[in-house]
């Protein structure tokens, strides 16, 4: 299909993508769903790949055993889902070392934090909203922490 997209936002063909892309293929994105309400954009596969590289897959870690976990700079979600319940300590890296700016979501996925609390501690002398550690102590509770601009510490987010 060449040229401009149809004015009503519908695409006239649903051709299969060839098994090998060369990067110059042209696709249309219509947002929010039709030309009347939104705008149409032309995008090449190379541009789409560059866009997707800016939003890598989220890294979910499941803690199933052990008393402590040192979070990775690539962690975006940490689920505490321990086979045998016990208190859990999670140490997060310094905010400036995180590879993704949207922070870490930490959740009691087993539902026993009321009995086995989860303590989150901040490394490198940093804190979150003035606290050196935070606790999840209610069943299925969660905590979302996000690096401050400049990576000097953390703040709690909803």
Structure description:
6% of the residues lie in helices and 33% in strands. The protein is built from one helix and eleven strands; from the N terminus they run ββαβββββββββ. The strands form three sheets. Strands 3-5-7-10-11 form a five-stranded mixed β-sheet, with no helix packed on it. It has a four-stranded mixed β-sheet with strand order 4-6-8-9, with no helix packed on it. It has a two-stranded antiparallel ribbon with strand order 1-2. It is elongated, with a radius of gyration of 22 Å.
Q: What is the count of DSSP helices, taking H or I runs of 4+ residues? A: 1
Strand order within the widest beta sheet: 3-5-7-10-11
CATH architecture of the largest domain: Sandwich
Structural class: mainly beta
Major pleated sheet: 5 strands, mixed
Shape, per Cα inertia axes: elongated
Tally of discrete structural domains: 2
Determine and state the CATH class of the largest domain.
Answer: Mainly Beta
CATH fold naming of the largest domain:
Jelly Rolls
Point out poorly predicted stretches: none
Strand percentage: 25-35%
Mean pLDDT: 83
Distance between the termini: 44 Å
| Fraction of residues in helix | under 10%
Tally of strands: 11
Name given to the CATH homologous superfamily of the largest domain: gp9
Computed over alpha carbons, the radius of gyration is: 22 Å
């Amino acid at each position: 299909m060449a040229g401009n997209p149809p004015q009503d936002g519908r695409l006239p063909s649903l051709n299969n993508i060839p098994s090998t892309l060369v990067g110059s293929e042209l696709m249309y994105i219509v947002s929010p769903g039709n030309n009347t309400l939104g705008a149409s954009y032309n995008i090449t596969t190379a541009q789409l790949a560059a866009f997707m590289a800016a939003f890598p897959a989220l890294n979910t870690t499941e803690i199933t055993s052990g008393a402590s976990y040192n979070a990775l700079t690539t962690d975006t979600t940490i689920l505490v889902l321990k086979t045998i319940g016990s208190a859990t300590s999670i140490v997060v890296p310094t905010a400036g070392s995180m590879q993704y700016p949207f922070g870490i979501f930490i959740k009691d996925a087993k539902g026993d934090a009321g009995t086995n609390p989860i303590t989150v501690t901040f490394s490198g002398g940093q804190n979150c909203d003035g606290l050196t550690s935070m606790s999840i102590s209610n069943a299925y509770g969660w905590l979302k922490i996000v690096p401050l601009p400049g990576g000097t510490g953390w703040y709690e987010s909803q």
